[in-house]
Specification:
By secondary structure, the chain is mainly β. Helix content is 0%, strand content 55%. The strands form two sheets. Strands 2, 4, 5, 6, 9, 10 and 11 form a seven-stranded mixed sheet that branches. Strands 1-3-8-7 form a four-stranded antiparallel sheet, with no helix packed on it. β9 and β10 form a beta hairpin.
Length: 115
């Protein structure tokens, strides 16, 4: 069993920055990747960024150059640094841990970009 706890969301003005954290507990052996997803009202949940066990990353086109995913293996924590935030980045952000047979999700953290 894996538990994920996100933190770091909040209200920020356009152009501002936030850093989200996802702390994982439980067995992370044989994990494929950890990722950040987001869901805005009326929209489907979409991939924002992921980092594989080997360290390679992928980003949605809409966040390339603005968001950076990273991890601290000693702390079992994945981060999402979000810069140059736009109103369209407003959503609930979810952390996901993907394994061969199961996926685990965090409870989500709200990010609101507004002046």
């Amino acid at each position: 069993q894996v538990q994920l706890v996100e933190s770091g969301g909040g209200l920020v003005q356009p152009g501002g920055s936030l850093r989200l954290s996802c702390a994982a507990s439980g067995s992370l052996f044989s994990i494929y990747y950890m990722g950040w997803y987001r869901q805005a009202p009326g929209n489907q949940r979409e991939l924002v960024a992921l980092i594989r066990s080997g360290g390679t990353t992928n980003y949605a086109d809409s966040v390339k150059g603005r968001f950076t995913i990273s991890r601290d293996n000693a702390k079992n924590t994945v981060y999402l640094q979000m810069n140059s935030l736009k109103p369209e980045d407003t959503a609930v952000y979810y952390c996901k841990a993907a394994f061969s047979r199961n996926d685990y999700w965090g409870q989500g953290t709200q990010v609101t970009v507004s002046s």
